[in-house]
Amino acid sequence: MIKGxxxxxxxxxxxxxxxxxxxGFETGAGLAIEHQGxxxxxxxxxxxxxxxxxxxxxxxxxxxxSVTKGITATCISRLIDQGKLDPAEKVGYYWPEYSCNxxxxxxxxxxxxxxxxxxxxxxxxPQGSFQDWDKFVQHLQSQAPYRKPGISQGxxxxxxxxxxxxxxxxxxxRSVGQYFHEEIAAPLEIDFHIGLDEKEFARCADMLMMERDxxxxxxxxxxxxxxxFLPAKLQNFKEALIxxxxxxxxxxxxxxxxxxxxxxxxxxxxxxxxxxxxxAESLARxxxxxSNGCTRDEISIMSEASLHQAITPHSSGPDSVLFGAxxxxxxxxxxxxxxxxxxxxxxxxxxxxxxxxxxxxxxxxGDPDKGIGYGFTCNQQHSPNEMYRTSNLxxxxxxxxxx
Length: 403
Prior knowledge:
The protein is built from 13 helices and 13 strands. The protein has about 400 residues and is of the alpha+beta class. It has an eight-stranded antiparallel β-sheet with strand order 1-3-2-13-12-11-10-9, sandwiched between helices. It has a three-stranded antiparallel β-sheet with strand order 4-6-5. Strand 11 and strand 12 form a beta hairpin. It is globular, with a radius of gyration of 20 Å.
């Protein structure tokens, strides 16, 4: 059932991966880990589809949802490194139409750190094809923010893609998908795509999504508990719960069922916050490069100084969308506990880890202290309290060996 390579030293990681699929918890998955520039693990197993008729292969692509934000953040940091973008500058300097309706003082760093108060579409997500980039951008650039930008953190689950993606387009002229492919993916042989060509559909795994009505959010009873009974963290949780920001950030359209993320329209669109498709090995390779000097085969993604700036905490919650959680963000990257939203990525977690997690259970990160690049992909969505169970077990075993 499990194929690929695992350095014998990491047998416990192999066992955890094997058990996640053998038990049926994961339908199909891939795991790849680089350490100090070398692949130590590249495993895959299970199936690409609900009926288990197609085996997961080494080059199986899968939608990794918000793991895509880490890829977009890498593009942003490259532009900052090249002096084409200043995170301290106002968004309107690069994108004049954005400066209206209370957004005039929004800084680039506010977009990158989820502090722009633009975490949803006022009036709901626009109808029609997700491939119509301008429609989504024009909606966002003309609307008012949910509150004053810059004063609070609220996770921009979907809107991050168009906001940051349009910023890249204004600065560089290319879409995020084209920019990433030409500047990073193609030169460094990274099999990751934002906007998937139809010729690649044959190697795509189906995402097996839960029906939204079946996902129960935790802690609803706290709405009715007086604040003086609650510690500060639970007060933050309660305030975020009452605010309704989660519902705004994770809006859905009536015409889109749970299977929509497997549709031609979703796969072909460029949504730099949510629909990147890649392999586990591609993610491990990218973060492995970033965690080992940012250069490989004499090709540099950015300077180490620019990476350091990108993975320095610029915001640390409480996050009004993610129930008051103290999630840390750098310039687009999740940091520390934020990488796996529902809990620490591993008990030995350290503040140098940077990357992103996705709502389907995928996780990718780098660790410059250890020289690690990590990519875990899967196609079975789980309830919030178990969403990152497999990845957490894998990283726990990994860091018990690499101490």
